[in-house]
Amino acid sequence: MPLIQVLDEQTIDKIAAGEVVERPSSVVKELVENAIDAKATAVTVEIRDGGTTLIRITDNGCGIAQDQIPVAFFRHSTSKIRSVDDLVTISSLGFRGEALSSIAAVSQVELITKTTDAFTGSRFLIEGGKEVLLEEVGAPNGTTFLVKNLFYNTPARRKFLKMPQTEAGYINDMMERIALSHPDISFKFINNGQIRLHTSGNGNLKDNIYHIYGRDIAANLLDVQETFENFSVSGYIGKPVISRGNRHFESYFINGRYIKSSIIAKAIEDGYRGCLMQHKYPFTVLSICLDGNLVDVNVHPNKMELRFSDEEELYRQILNLIHRTLQKRELIADVTLKEEKKSAEKPSFDKKRFRNRLRKTGWIRYARPSGRTVPMSRNTSTERANLLQNLFLRPGSDRYPNRNPG
Ligand code: ADP
Ligand code: MG
């Protein structure tokens, strides 16, 4: 009979890491969430090669005290809850204390951090879950994580990664959602030295939508703001005219957390029923605030799935809210009156009058039967300038005829 043994810590960490760290974008998600929980107002994420060789995340949050650093990398070590009861009132994004230990188990991590009240900062190196170095260094307030060579010691996982540009795309997507869920924080995302996203952190969600999705989307949004008995919903939904071919543009956040929920997606889509063509999906950015005891965030280590205590109520209210918002507004695509006004003001170019004036001034002597005018002599440049000025035509202006009569 084979011997039954308890696995060693590093093997346990590597196995557990599989659930939290699936790919580079999971590392980014966990570390950015930590930065948000640390009350950072600016977070920069820089990646190389789709995050496989380097992920650097810098924040200006509270930092970690030197004596706390090794503890932070233990499995199930957290500063965010003390007991399971705290999950009911939890306002932080993290609470399971698994991210740092999981990330450190499958990569080479360098941490530089400083708290506001410390004189110096600290630098900590940990590779494959083994501590390598802890030293004092000069550092600004806040925290920087460098995660190098992800899955260098778990080749099976590394094999399942996609091309660097695909992995970078996942990270870009994650950064956009996080930026939308926290418009009060400035996020910068740099991929292979190029800035891909930079939000201002001015708290204006519409600014972020404009920045991420562009003018057409931002110009076709409907405001949503409603408080129900147990929860509130705020944000924007797109007019049917900006519907999309897939669900990718349906974003919703529960208590500041980007999640996937079939119940909320269904409520949104059913709310649009009758307004969208078949196989079209709406654009939404909705922030839902729920009482802690109505939602269970502890379903999966990646915290992307939630369980609601009263799903039906949530479904019904969101569906009705979307439906009412869509009915309330004029949904016919906005006609750009500006354009019309502009062209109405502009006098049309009168070809006949123009040709007569040219003939009178002697610039054109006669017209061929074909109608094409042929100049017999060239006027001096002053004459020409005067003539054009008389006709209110200036070279370069939109009233200046394309064909040069001279
Ligand atoms: P969790 O976020 O679930 O608490 P993590 O493993 O992600 O667990 O982090 C462990 C602890 O390390 C956190 O509880 C927090 O105290 C500390 N920490 C991690 N990242 C940061 C950061 N960027 N700034 C300040 N403290 C941090
Ligand atoms: Mg965390």
Unreliable spans: 366-379, 391-406
Spatial strand arrangement across the major sheet? 5-4-3-6-2-1-7-8
Radius of gyration over C-alpha positions, nearest whole angstrom: 31 Å
Tell me, briefly, the overall form.
globular
User: What helical percentage do the residues reach?
Assistant: 25-40%
Q: Please indicate the percent range of residues in DSSP E strands (runs of 2 or more).
A: 15-25%
**Strand elements, count:** 17
By DSSP (H or I, 4+ residues per run), the number of helices equals 13
Report the bound ligands by name, code or SMILES.
adenosine-5'-diphosphate, magnesium ion
Look at the structure and give the mean pLDDT.
85
- Main sheet properties: 8 strands, mixed
| SS class | alpha+beta
Alpha-carbon distance between the two ends: 103 Å
Q: What is the N-to-C order of secondary-structure elements (H for helix, E for strand)?
A: HHEEHHEEEEHHEEHHEEEEHEEEHHHEEH
